Amino acid sequence: MTTNGKTRAVWFDVPCTDLDRAIRFYGAVLSCEVAREDFDGGAMGVLEHDSSGVGGCLVVTTDNTPSDKGILLYLNCDGRLDDAIARATEHGGAVLTPKHQLGPHGFRAILRDSEGNRVALHSNTA
To answer: What string of H, E and C letters represents the secondary structure of 2-49?
Structure first.
């Protein structure tokens, strides 16, 4: 959603306890590149994105821990929702709420990722 040409959400951090495991999970589920970036004092897995979209990363920090409570992040799996759900379970995730329709707003499934976070996978088509 944009207002005055600006996307309100611009970045997100997904907390994890095992960065390499989370990189494998999200790379498989989203079918995208997750680039590991090591820097002084830490590392992160940056999800593939471009300058026109919202970006995010996987991080291991003491400030944030994986949780199945709080804000529900919707991840785009448009046109490949069933495949994404299958890949999630193959890579250590679990289906919390099976795929279902959101009225005219497409379809979603709610999962627990490999790190224990609750996330939604979304597609405009079944």
So the answer is: EECCEECCCEEEEECCCHHHHHHHHHHHHCCCEEEEEECCEEEEEECC
Amino acid of residue 58: L
Q: Determine the 3-state secondary structure of 82 from DSSP.
A: helix
pLDDT tens across 8-61, in order? 778 999 999 999 999 999 999 999 999 999 998 899 999 998 877 789 999 998
Q: What pTM, to 2 d.p., does this model score?
A: 0.89
CA distance 69 to 37: 27
Sign of CA dihedral 73, 90, 15, 58: negative
DSSP-assigned letters across all residues of 49-64: --TTS-EEEEE--SS-
Q: Measure Cα distances from 54 to 48, 75, 85, 99 in Å.
A: 10, 11, 22, 24
Q: Which domains does the chain have, with CATH numbers?
A: 10-123 (3.10.180.10)
